[in-house]
Amino acid sequence: MNETKQQLIGLFVSRDVKRRKKLYQYYESYFKQQHSVRFTLALINADLGSTLVNWLDIKYIRAHCHQWQTTLPDQTDNLHQLAESNNVE
User: How far is 52 from 66, CA to CA, in rounded Å?
Assistant: First the structure.
């Protein structure tokens, strides 16, 4: 088991505040596939090897993940250029 997954398990065991954000970051591809809550939960718990994650964690992540997504540097530069051009006019 890799170190990141062990840290993630440790966060869930200790009920850390950032556990859901880290879970999303680690399993971002699972959440982007738009599976049902039950199937996503089964995939994650099977990969972790225990039932640390529950359906409320999945629902919370889906409700808040849009806040955690990062934009690519190229997109950020384009947004800054657009904002500057709007301010000039």
Answer: 23
Q: How far apart are the first and last CA of the chain?
A: 56
Query: For the chain, how many residues are written?
Result: 89
- pLDDT (tens, 9 = 90+) of the chain, 89 residues, equals 678 889 999 999 999 999 999 999 999 999 988 899 999 999 999 999 889 999 999 999 999 988 887 655 555 555 556 566 655 54
Q: Are 41 and 53 in contact (CB under 8 A)?
A: yes
CA distances from 13 to 5, 35, 83 (A): 12, 25, 44
* Sign of the four-CA dihedral 62, 17, 7, 66: positive
- Contact partners, residue 30, CB within 8 Å, separation at least 6: 40, 43, 44
